[in-house]
Amino acid sequence: MSWQNNLRSVSPYIAGEQPELTDIIKLNTNENPYPPTSVAQLFNERYKTKNLRLYPSTDAKSLRKKLADYHHLEVEQVIIGNGSDEVLSLSFLTFFNSQSPLLMPDITYSFYPIYCELYRIPFQKVPVDDDFKVLIKDYCIENGGIVIANPDAPTALALNLKDIEEILKKNQNSIVLINEAYIDFGGETCLPLLKKYDNLVVVQTFSKSRSLAGIRLGVAYGSAEAISHLYDVKNSFNSYPIDSLAQIIGEASLMDEHYFQKNIQKIIKTREVFKDNLVNLGFEVTDSKANFVFVHHPKVKAEELFKALYEAKIIVRHWNQPRIDDWLRITIGTNKEMNKVIEFLKGYLKKNEEIDEWKK
Amino acid sequence: MSWQNNLRSVSPYIAGEQPELTDIIKLNTNENPYPPTSVAQLFNERYKTKNLRLYPSTDAKSLRKKLADYHHLEVEQVIIGNGSDEVLSLSFLTFFNSQSPLLMPDITYSFYPIYCELYRIPFQKVPVDDDFKVLIKDYCIENGGIVIANPDAPTALALNLKDIEEILKKNQNSIVLINEAYIDFGGETCLPLLKKYDNLVVVQTFSKSRSLAGIRLGVAYGSAEAISHLYDVKNSFNSYPIDSLAQIIGEASLMDEHYFQKNIQKIIKTREVFKDNLVNLGFEVTDSKANFVFVHHPKVKAEELFKALYEAKIIVRHWNQPRIDDWLRITIGTNKEMNKVIEFLKGYLKKNEEIDEWKK
Predict the structure, then answer these.
(1) List the disulfide bonds (chains A, B).
(2) Chain B residue with minimal CA distance to A32?
(3) Where does B30-160 have alpha helices with state H?
């Protein structure tokens, strides 16, 4: 016997690298290339840090109300957490307390199985089809809950509302958790379905479309009943998860709708041009509705390309995982950054072709 | 069957009220009456919020290093969390994964049993003696871990290092978690015992002595091995728990040792004067080593006094709980605030005495 016998054994999630080099093109963690609204700067500068001696609002009351108004929901339908990872984690702990398996696509956010291991939640991976599409009919089996990212990471593919409604309808005895971290980049939010389904919980984040990954704000929306249970678990975990500065910066973000929309449109435009350029270079690219693309080249091993990009100080994401080990996920940066990526790829593919020719 | 069947049932912690009134004397959540160092204001004003588009360091690297240096520890012996409540919560999840009960005093921080319920950890409350003292010999029974607050809340009593070492020695097969949230107000930290015991984990916070409850920074110190396990669980829960602003404000706090020490001494001085005044009014007061006092008056029901104080806009803390339902916990505020409390109590006790006289 030793204290080591009482440890919870887990295999933790490994987040995308945050390299300390400064002259890199960082396209590996789906951060927004543009800053948050300047209102955030203003609010932060004006904040009197003497107020930090006091605890923050336990439910980020004012921000919570503003989010409810923004989405035409009741305040009781909203809960804010310390980034969407915390919201997801506490949702798993709250809602998936079943002997039946939680269902999730086999290709999706790799944190889900880690939450399951942490909380001892049985789960079952449901294979997507050869085009990485989620097949609705596969989610009509016995389960203790369902989690789907829409759009998905890393595939970047989105589901339509009709498909999500079908899943909700067929699973009224399970919570269906839809992770909409990337929804603002072209997907269709399922928040309107909250009017009809009390088993729907939708998670969103300030990290991507609102350029606030550094301040850690995630949100879940659901029926007032579902959210009240999530609050009970949150209040059994941490009374004050959102610090006072994060609360005011979140509010600042909501005040500048014009900048928010402009920022998103810029990224979508860059994505579409980047996709066209990739296709012209012979890449296969999924129909991205996110701020990243998922790509594959028939003539180049993804792992080799990943390393070549890394050496050129362009950091993207690659997983050594069945079905996607020949694919790369590339975040959409600025136009200038994406042009540099295309230039690099052109040179790389040309050199590769020459070597192939020479081998013949 | 319904989705409600799969819910985790919990009875959440209820934090001390954060009233929205402005002209109150707020002595109910052990906040510091003085602001944090002015370096925090400076750092915050200068921060460029454009950097918030990027994720923060997953382990608050720079702050972690500074804390290690401050306490003459290795960086691997330090983990930072989103307030000490998160650090405690993740410590329970990591270390107390046993069939044997976790031991804790019966009178202590009331969040501990709530973590146990959340994570299904068996626990056993060990009665303190009639003077609220923790009896070391009672912790030499079979257990899956031990958690003790030093100084304790709400009793305000501290243990000495010899007693803590005795517990560590007798329980080398269990993690002994010492919650030092209030240690800077007169207790003796057990951090030096980390040199000898790899089963010791010490939790501290920026919320009390550093006047930073609003920014949510808690810390655990332990052996490099214990902390690495805590990191594995943290990284299975949330990759980025500390936002970028909290990290720089924590660093600002560590840069102003002079202000920090002065602030603590002021509070201790106010506490000692307040205690003397209370004793002169006939109160029983425990030997506080914290930024609050735990008090009882032989002639007045605590609950009635709590209500009378509340009506006078002086908010303190009372628990309807066996053994302490006739006690109040009062945070140490400014001299001016504590003088007002004494003035109120004088008037209240005098009126009470007159009523008693009249009844005869």
Answers:
(1) none
(2) B53
(3) 38-46, 61-70, 84-95, 112-119
Beta bridge partner(s), residue A105: A126
CA distance A291 to A32: 8
Q: What is the mean pLDDT of chain A?
A: 96
What secondary structure does DSSP assign to B62-99, as a single string?
A: HHHHHHHHHTT--GGGEEEESSHHHHHHHHHHHH---S
Mention every residue, 6+ apart, whose C-beta is less than 8 A from residue B339. none
Using alpha carbons, list the distances in angstroms from residue A189 to A109, A173, A184, A358: 18, 22, 8, 51
Handedness of CA B310, B186, B156, A59 (dihedral sign): positive
Which two structure tokens, joined as six digits, stand for A98?
Answer: 């079943």
pLDDT, position B22: 76
Q: What is the pLDDT of residue B16?
A: 81
Distance of CA A208 to the CA centre of its chain: 8
Angstrom CA distances, A57 to A54, A61, A62, stand at 9, 6, 9
> Looking at residue B358, what is its pLDDT?
84
Q: Is A218 part of the contact surface with chain B (CB cutoff 8 Å)?
A: no
CB contact under 8 A, A10 and B239: no
Q: Is any Cβ of chain B less than 8 angstroms from the Cβ of A335? A: no
B123 phi and psi angles, rounded to 5 deg: -145, 160
- Residue of chain A whose Cα is closest to the Cα of B102: A6
What lies within 8 Å, CB to CB, of B39 at 6+ separation is B252, B253, B255, B256
Q: Nearest Cα to B100, choosing from A5, A348, A84, A197?
A: A5
Which element (helix H / strand E) includes B259? helix B257-280
Contact list, B333 vs chain A (CB under 8 Å): none
For B55, which of A12, A41, A214 is closest by C-beta distance? A214
- Note whether B52 contacts A213, CB cutoff 8 Å: yes
Q: Supply the pLDDT for residue A222.
A: 98
**How far is C-alpha A115 from the geometric centre of its chain's CA atoms?**
15
Give the whole-number percent of chain A exceeding pLDDT 90: 93
B93 and A118 within 8 Å at the Cβ level: the answer is yes
What does the pLDDT average to over A30-48? 97
Pair A55, A240: CB distance under 8 Å: yes
pLDDT tens by residue, A139-170: 999 999 999 999 999 999 999 999 999 999 99
Distance from CA of B156 to the nearest CA of A (A): 20
- B121 touches A: beta carbon within 8 Å: no
pLDDT at residue A51, rounded to an integer:
97
Write out residues in chain B with pLDDT < 50, as ranges: none
DSSP A75-140: GGGEEEESSHHHHHHHHHHHH---SSPEEEESSS-TTHHHHHHHHT--EEEEPP-TT----GGGG-
B55–A contact, CB cutoff 8 A: yes
CA distance A319 to chain B (A): 18
My answer on whether omega of the bond before B154 falls inside 30° of 0, hence cis, is yes
pLDDT at A86 over 90: yes
User: Is residue A19 very low, low, confident or very high in pLDDT (cuts 50, 70, 90)?
Assistant: confident
Q: Residues A212, B49: contact at Cβ < 8 Å? A: no
Instruction: Give me the domains of chain B, ranges plus CATH numbers.
Output: 19-34+257-354 (3.90.1150.10), 38-254 (3.40.640.10)
User: Is B334 near chain A, with CB under 8 Å?
Assistant: no
Structure tokens, B287: 């030997």
Phi-psi region of B123 (alpha: psi -120 to 50; beta: other; left: phi over 0): beta
